[in-house]
Fold Late embryogenesis abundant protein.
Amino acid sequence: MIMKTNRSRLLLAATCLLLLSGCAALQSLFKQAFKKPRFTFKTARLSQASLSDATVDLVYQLDNPNPLGLSLASVNYAFFVEDKQVVAGTPPKGLNIAAKGKSDLVFPANVRFADLVPVVSTFLNKDAARYKAQGSIGVKTPIGVINFPLSHEGTFEVPKIPQVQFNAPRVSNVTLQGATVEFPLVVKNRNSFALPVAGITGAMKIAGANVGNLSTGNLGLLEPGATREIKLPLNINFASALSAANALRSGGNAQVKMDGQLTSGTQKLPLDISQLLNFQR
């Protein structure tokens, strides 16, 4: 009985040794066959932007030459704009990386301009803003987790305030009491990306007289470099705008001033327009 027990123990020990040696051999085979992936910076882009904030995407590329798919194990990522740290996101954990192929890893960061400067309009006068990304990622592989440093510096385009001006107004329905004036407001997006404009509002003066308020309503997205004209009618009472009456009746020239604001995102920016316009009839 004792002899049989000893034989069983010896058989179990021999089996374990065989299995362990097989695992070690398999792991050694993996190490010899496995090729280290390459992790490189690809591009920086604005995925969305307004005059209040922007999302900056840093795109990296992971080239996996192995016949086995990989996955993202860990992310440690920080993003700085003009030397100030901003909110940074990460690619979803567990992101699968294709076998024998290239996969893009997108690292987004939301930049709120009010967090960078006391006056947002000052920041919007810049052509570009400096950014710096730093950190690391861990990629899960058959031979363990491989870490790659994540570091890049560059600039991104700062959103520009749209150009806003009037074309020649058209006067209609002229009576002794007043007239209707149609103001063509021209809005040009000076950016290389689409920009949302939630609205333009302002108090109007003609020849120094208050004549009322104009509002465009929500203009939605302005396409890159696009120009849009919005025709805004305004009924003017001559009794309250005597200095404007002569220009409107005769169809001559008069100084037009709009004191208002432009809204994009959550940001409201002052808008001051002053033009000498010819009133057409």
Remarks:
- The chain has three helices and 18 strands.
- The chain has a mean pLDDT of 88.
- The first helix runs from residue 2 to 33.
- The two ends are 120 Å apart (CA to CA).
